[in-house]
Write a structure and sequence with these properties.
With 164 residues, the protein is an alpha+beta fold. The longest helix has 22 residues. It is globular and about 45 Å long. The protein has a 7-stranded antiparallel sheet with strand order 1-7-6-5-4-3-2, covered by helices on one side. It contains 4 helices and 7 strands; from the N terminus they run βααββββββαα.
Amino acid sequence: MKTSDFTATILVDQTPKEVFDAFNNVRGWWSENIEGGTDKLDDEFTYHYQDIHYCKIKLIEVVPDQKVVWLVLDNYFKFTNDKSEWIGTKVIFDISQQNGQTVATFTHEGLVPQYECFEICREAWTNYVKYSLRNLITTGEGQPSGKDHDEFDVQMVEKWRLDQ
């Protein structure tokens, strides 16, 4: 059965532990605008970007070097009619090995094409996972959105508004 949830996969030479540690360093690949714990079972953290996006996330499954699952407890988008898209969705990060490499699969379960935010969220997650997280894993330095002005996020929202 084919799913329409957003998924992105990266293949790296680093160990599952290195991939797991990088994913849990959410400030290192997603955003510096993260408050709270991001690496232990039952940790809760919030993300915010200006008055455009806010979400509260809880870690509901943590299996070292194999899997992390976040549950979105609260969410707000300024740019959608349904401000609460994402609430109840899960972000799942699976780690496996294949032919001597580590496979990292990121799935935002519940982020589907029917969501108003799907296109902008798909593009943003793709950037964060395939570039920022991959770079954090492979070089030790990701490209998270900053605490202040972040040109990528501004461009994404403006592109979305123009496409509507």
